[in-house]
């Protein structure tokens, strides 16, 4: 074994040890799609065997940093446009490339969270998808529908920096993060940013939102290979507290509830974390109003999904993602 690969192996072994210690510290098993104290969450899985270590090394030996940074575009794109012409628990399989802003997050080459492209440089996701993670090991995939289809090579980037809000697993408040990518993402028919809200005072109460992701199709199930979608109505925080089993201490102003109290059946689930809850605007384009955050189980009648309220962080998002190219149409 030459010196180059000895160095790589040492780095990977150190990384593996740090990840294992972090998992022990947090008492959370990395990479398991399960309920933690009754709540959904998504964590990546570290390599835990020699075969996995060899596979990781083989896959990453040829990975090189980009030779140059792709120049900024003219920003003359349109955000929030679905590809309807090409056209989750209790949901349906989405049409191929119907949601061109969808991003898939992988850690050590294992899928674990979702995200949303907001400009050609940044992805919006949940803070619990990056807290305690080595962000440089997060791979972000774009323009993808069937994540299990190895015959298609989607556009991929790696995370250069993760910027998160002050988040804690104790209450899941401020569950939001920005991922700065190592290179710009080309804006195409299959890859396009989602629009950010323009009205900070919008509550979206009563409006129907669409949650998308590759998460489990039922509680404690297996993640989906294909992107799925589910329609859920937004509930006021007051009704979420009064008509469900959530309490006032659990639902903060930075959160929003969406689902069917007393009915359940439709909901986001484990693995959908970090993905978007979007709403159609009057101009038929879509904007992101929530980020899949947490919930007690999945699709339970008394526990709708809880999402991070994007309008509470608009200034923070624009300030920290300003070196990216936002669509100007």
Automatic annotation (TrEMBL):
Cellular localisation: Membrane
First and last residue of the signal peptide: 1-23
GO cellular component, one term: membrane
UniProt feature coiled coil, ranges: none
Topological type in the membrane: Single-pass type II membrane protein
Domain Peptidase S1, residue spans: 88-322
UniProtKB keywords: Disulfide bond, Hydrolase, Protease, Serine protease, Signal, Signal-anchor, Transmembrane
Pfam family membership, one: Trypsin
GO molecular function, one term: serine-type endopeptidase activity
Annotated CDD domains: Tryp_SPc
GO biological process, one term: proteolysis
Family statement drawn from the similarity comment of this UniProt entry: Belongs to the peptidase S1 family. CLIP subfamily.
Name of the featured protein: Peptidase S1 domain-containing protein
Organism of provenance: Polypedilum vanderplanki
């Amino acid at each position: 074994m030459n010196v180059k690969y000895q160095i790589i192996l040492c780095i990977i072994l150190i990384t593996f040890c740090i990840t294992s210690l972090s998992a022990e510290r947090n008492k959370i098993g990395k990479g398991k799609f399960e309920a933690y104290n009754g709540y959904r969450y998504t964590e990546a899985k570290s390599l835990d065997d020699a075969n996995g270590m060899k596979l990781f090394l083989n896959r990453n030996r040829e990975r090189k940093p980009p030779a140059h940074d792709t120049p900024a575009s003219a920003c003359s794109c349109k955000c929030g446009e679905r590809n309807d012409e090409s056209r989750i628990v209790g949901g349906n399989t989405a049409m191929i490339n119907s949601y061109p802003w969808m991003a898939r997050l992988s850690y050590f080459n294992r899928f674990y969270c979702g995200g949303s492209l907001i400009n050609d440089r940044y992805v919006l996701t949940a803070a619990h998808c990056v807290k305690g993670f080595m962000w440089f090991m997060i791979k972000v995939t774009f323009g993808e529908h069937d994540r299990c289809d190895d015959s298609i090579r989607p556009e991929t980037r790696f995370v250069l920096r993760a910027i998160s809000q002050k988040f804690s697993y104790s209450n899941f408040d401020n569950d939001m993060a920005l991922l700065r990518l190592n290179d710009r993402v080309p804006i195409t028919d299959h890859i396009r940013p989602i629009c950010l809200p323009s009205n900070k005072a919008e509550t979206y109460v009563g409006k129907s939102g669409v949650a998308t992701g590759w998460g489990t199709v039922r509680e404690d199930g297996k993640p989906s290979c294909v992107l799925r979608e589910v329609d859920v109505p937004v509930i006021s925080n007051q009704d979420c507290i009064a008509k469900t089993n959530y309490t006032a201490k659990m639902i903060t102003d930075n959160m929003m509830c969406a689902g069917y109290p007393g009915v359940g059946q439709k909901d986001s689930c484990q693995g959908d974390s970090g993905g978007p809850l979007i709403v159609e605007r009057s101009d038929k384009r879509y904007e992101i109003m929530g980020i899949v955050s947490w919930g007690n189980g999945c699709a339970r009648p008394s526990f709708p999904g809880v999402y991070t309220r994007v309008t509470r962080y608009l200034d923070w998002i624009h300030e920290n993602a300003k070196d990216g190219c936002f669509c100007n149409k």
